[in-house]
Design a protein that fits this description.
The protein is of the alpha/beta class. The protein has 17 helices and eight strands. Helix 12 (325-337) crosses helix 13 (342-355) and helix 13 (342-355) packs across helix 15 (376-387).
Length: 420
């Protein structure tokens, strides 16, 4: 039997994992590997992805569950290595006579650099590889556009994408999977020090939340009316942390929403959750299209608005000490929990960019550091959108924060809770 290495990246799940499924279908024994990596810039220098304890805890729980699932299926466990995947993976390929490597593509430019460099190394050693897109709803082949031709306006993308949505569900039968016997150190379940996120990582938790939000509680039926909430656990789906690390796939969520619509109810709210999944999808493919442009002040535009370098204002914004109560409450929630609602994110971003006139990239980087559900394309895509250097057809996406507070926190409960 031939051997395949499955490079686990941000697809930390056992079921509905196309890399495992392809290995099974092609008769490979599987060597599952996660490299607790630092991403690399084009110069080959380490650029560790900033992770607070919120995301460290969540990641540890995700890896622990995948490790246990592999053990239950007959494997030695999940190999977890520190260091450079561009060195570690070829080493493992040579050591265990790997014939093919499977991995999921990710849209960020650093991730793309990793993929391209690894592919070159594998080709030099005559090792086959296959790249999948199972963290997206589409693959490049199933998109209704060429990647280079994806519209710069979301509405144009949505109209065609809606007609081409996949409706398949990942299979759950992994009984035929075989694993490579190895001598590597497998995952050790040790939670890091520091604050824990309010979310519990892992595939089972993701599926539990999905079933709860749809079929147990029917909360999805009122999603459009409640999605701008600020306090509580159920005003929105809160699927984002598990989507960010691939504990669940967007295709699986879409499949279950469509099942809910057939079996229970189809209304504007069920459609709106699909609509939000399409926004996530759009930002992923736009980042594939524009790559490093999303990390410059002008974004995907030719020019950037004039901004000031005011360290004091930036630090006050980060600490939630601006004096604008609605924004301060949002930032303190982020600092205390690693999470912030979508409505609060938009207001905090708008205030930094349009009221304080600061560089939007500073805000995007701070969110990257803190958010438990950090996703490179959604984070930088949304920040660029608010800053007017992304995919917004409007020239100035300004939020009147005081007016927003009146609309979405009329009794001041959110502000009182976080500024107590």
């Amino acid at each position: 039997m031939q051997n395949a290495l499955v490079w686990i990246r941000k697809d930390i799940r056992f079921y509905d994992n196309e890399c495992f499924e392809l290995a099974i279908d092609n008769g490979f024994s599987v060597l599952p590997v996660f490299v607790d990596c630092s991403t690399l810039n084009p110069a080959g220098e380490y650029l560790p992805e900033p992770r607070t304890s919120f995301r460290e805890h969540f990641l540890a729980e995700c890896l622990s569950e995948l490790h246990d699932a592999i053990r239950r299926a007959g494997g030695n466990g999940l190999i977890v290595l520190d260091g450079n995947p561009l060195e570690k993976i070829p080493e493992l390929c040579r050591k265990y006579n790997i014939d093919k490597v499977y991995f999921a593509s990710e849209p960020g430019p650093f991730e793309q650099f990793q993929e391209n460099t690894l592919v070159q190394a594998l080709m030099q050693e005559s090792i086959a590889f296959e790249k999948v897109h199972h963290n997206s709803m589409f693959s490049p082949e199933s998109l209704p556009f060429q990647v280079r031709d994806i519209p710069d306006i979301f509405t144009e993308f949505r109209k065609k994408a809606e007609r081409a949505l996949p409706l398949s569900r990942g299979r759950k039968d992994t009984s035929k999977i075989h694993f490579v016997n190895h001598e590597e150190v497998v995952y050790q379940s040790i939670l890091p020090e520091g604050k824990k996120s309010k979310f519990t990582g892992g595939e089972s938790e993701a599926l539990k939340r999905l079933n709860y939000y749809l079929f147990e509680s029917n909360l999805i039926a009122s999603y459009k009316e409640t999605r701008n909430g600020l306090l509580g656990e159920d005003f929105s789906s809160r699927f984002s942390p598990w989507l960010a690390l691939g504990c669940i796939s967007p295709k699986r969520i879409l499949f279950e929403i469509k099942s809910y619509e057939r079996e229970v109810l189809a209304n504007e709210s069920t459609y709106w959750l699909v609509f939000e999944l399409l926004w996530r999808e759009y930002f992923r493919w736009i980042m594939y299209k524009y790559q490093t442009k999303f990390f410059r002040p002008s974004g995907i535009k030719k020019e950037s608005p004039q901004r000031y370098e005011d360290t004091k204002s930036l630090e006050k914004w980060k600490k939630g000490e601006t004096g604008q109560a609605f924004v301060d409450a949002a930032m303190r929630e982020l600092n205390e929990t690693g999470f912030m609602s979508n409505r609060a994110r938009q207001n905090a971003a708008s205030y930094l960019v349009h009221d304080l006139k600061q560089n939007w990239l500073e805000g995007a980087r701070y969110f990257e550091q803190l958010l438990v559900d950090y996703d490179v394309s959604s984070n930088y895509g949304n920040w660029a959108y608010v800053a007017g250097v992304g995919n917004d057809p409007r020239p100035n996406r300004y939020f009147n924060v005081s007016r927003q507070a009146e609309m979405y926190d009329p009794d001041g409960r959110f502000v009182k809770y976080w500024l107590k």
